[in-house]
Amino acid sequence: QVQLVESGGGSVQAGDSLRLSCAASGRAFSILAMAWFRQASGQEREFVAAMGRFGPVIKYGESMKGRVTISTDNAKNTLFLQMNMLKPEDTVVYYCAPRQSNTVVVSPSMYDVWGQGAQVTVSS
Q1: Per residue in 87-109, pLDDT tens?
Q2: ∠ CA 82-93-110 to the nearest 5 degrees?
Q3: Which of 55, 39, 41, 19 is closest to 97 using CA atoms?
């Protein structure tokens, strides 16, 4: 089993930046792709970004495209999401999720392990 610990969330002003981290442990060596999703209360989980652990495929969702960059530090089994030019509508909980397949997919139903979530709050 893979365990995930997310960090880096917080409260910022509109236009600020944040970097989320997702550290994987346990059977982290089995992870071949990872993704970030976000979810507002009462809403479905929304795709933000995903990538193959060893590249080269990277996909971004439309809601944050151009403002986020997904990356990994494979030596540390850690996934990152750099978020820039944050907007109040980015105020949601962000989740990371791994896959044991190297196919980069955008549907949350294709992921079955999730981090605890990182709250991001952006004020205007």
Answers
A1: 999 999 999 999 999 899 999 99
A2: 85
A3: 39
Residue 107 to residue 9: CA distance in whole angstroms = 23
Confidence of residue 82 (pLDDT cuts 50, 70, 90): very high
Angle in degrees, CA 44, 50, 53, rounded to 5? 140
Amino acid in position 38: R
How far apart CA 75 and CA 124 sit, in angstroms, is 37
Peptide bond into 98 cis (omega under 30): no
Contacts with 92 (C-beta within 8 Å, 6 or more apart), sequence order: 38, 39, 40, 43, 46, 120
* Average pLDDT over all residues of the chain: 94
CB count in 10 Å sphere of residue 78: 18
The whole-angstrom separation of Cα 32 and Cα 35 is 11
pLDDT digits (tens, 9 = 90+) for 55-79: 789 999 998 999 999 999 988 999 9
